[in-house]
Every structure is written in structure tokens, then in C-alpha cells.
Amino acid sequence: MAAEQCRDLWKPMSDFYYKLRTLTRQHQSLQELRTSLSNQLHAQEHSMLTVKEVVSQLKQLIAKIDKQIEAMENAIAAQIQSNPMVTKKVADVCVIKGLGLHTVAVIIAETNGFALFKNGPQLISYSGYDVVENQSGNRKGKTKISKKGNSHIRRALHLPAFNVVRYEVAQFANLYYRTLERHGIKMKSYVAVQKKLLLMIYTIWKKDKQYNCKIHLGKSTRDKELETSSRHDFAKNKLEEV
Fold first, then answer.
1. Rg of the chain (C-alpha set)
2. What does the domain layout of the chain look like in residue ranges?
3. Over the stretch 11-25, which tens digit does the pLDDT of each residue have?
4. What is the pLDDT of residues 31-67, one digit of tens each?
5. Model pTM?
6. CB under 8 Å to 132, separation ≥6 — which residues?
């Protein structure tokens, strides 16, 4: 089967990206642990009977984890800076307003610098953003993303999707308002933004060119006017509802 389909030989992840992936996953583990401890602290401080010893320990643990998180963020930045080529590519991607170094670090670490991907659809499927439909026979249900791919990538893109829309980055804000006007589900529109953001990062990385809003917009003036008009109409409708 391998000979018939001409599959590429398997290659292990490079040492650089393996270390970067270990650092980013440790950072995520620390963040999750901090959230858990913060929830425990909140429960203790608002319980019927507050135990001072437990509260004190929880605060000390949170303070210690905060220092470890900061150390891990510095280690991630140092790892990226140790490779001039990666440093340049990351800087080119981070020109997108609302997208930070840590998000890009997670994505390139989980994909081995996009080494295994030949096109965008492969990356989308790997990340769990491919669309599936719940259907049986003649019945057709709602479509949704599969979520069967790499959860670390989806987690990393969650907040940046909010940021690029809030900062009115043209491509992503237009997509958000256009899809929101169509189905009215905010989270579904933000997922569409995440998917587009991932493809944008992949394109910039592969082409080795800095992000440029005017070049990557890729729409006619008429399309831009229509999208801007729809956003204004959407905002107007929301104000009327209020």
C-alpha cells in the first residue's frame, strides 16, 4: 500500500520544535493548574467557614505558579530567538494586531513548523476545524467542526480570534460580521475567524513574507463596501433592539 500510494518517509520532529512543544505544553499545564487553584481559593474565601491555613497555602501556591509561568514564557521566547529564521517568521506573523508570540509558538510547535502539511485543508483537518454534518438517511442535521484534531491549536487561537475582531483587523472583522448576520451565533462566527487566522499564519509562514492587510485582503472595492455596509446594518439593528 505504501509503495502504491507513494507516501513520504516518516521523519521525527526536529529537536528545536520538540523542545518548543514541550515548553508550550508545560505552560498550558501550569495555566490550567493555576485556574484550578484560583477556583479553590474563591470557594474557600466565600464559604460558610473560611479556613485561614488553607487560604494561605492556596495563595502561596498561586504565587509560586505565577513565577513558574513567567519563567516558562521567558523560556519560550528564548527558544524562538535561538533560531534566526524562526524569529523572523514569527515577527512577520505577529504583525497581525491581536496575535501574540505565544499563540504562534504553540501553532508552529504543534505542527513542526508546518513541515508535514502540503496545503491548507490538511492543516484544517489536523487542527479539528474541518466541518462535519450530522445526518442519517434523508435527515440532515446541523453542521459543526469535528474537534477531532489537535486541541492545543484550537485552544491557542481562542483569545486571538476575539482580539482581531475587537481591533477591527479587516479580513477577520469582515468575516465575523458577515457570518454573524447570516446565522446570529457569535461563537460560530469566532470559530470561523479562528480557522481563517490559522490559514493566514500558515500562508505567511510558507511564503516567508510579512503580513500586509492590503495584500492579504484579496477582495474588490465593491466587496469591501458591501461588508462594511452589512456591519453598519448589524450594529444599527442591535442598537434598535436595545
1. 22
2. 12-82, 86-242
3. 888 999 999 999 999
4. 999 999 999 999 999 998 989 999 999 999 999 999 9
5. 0.82
6. 143, 144, 145, 146
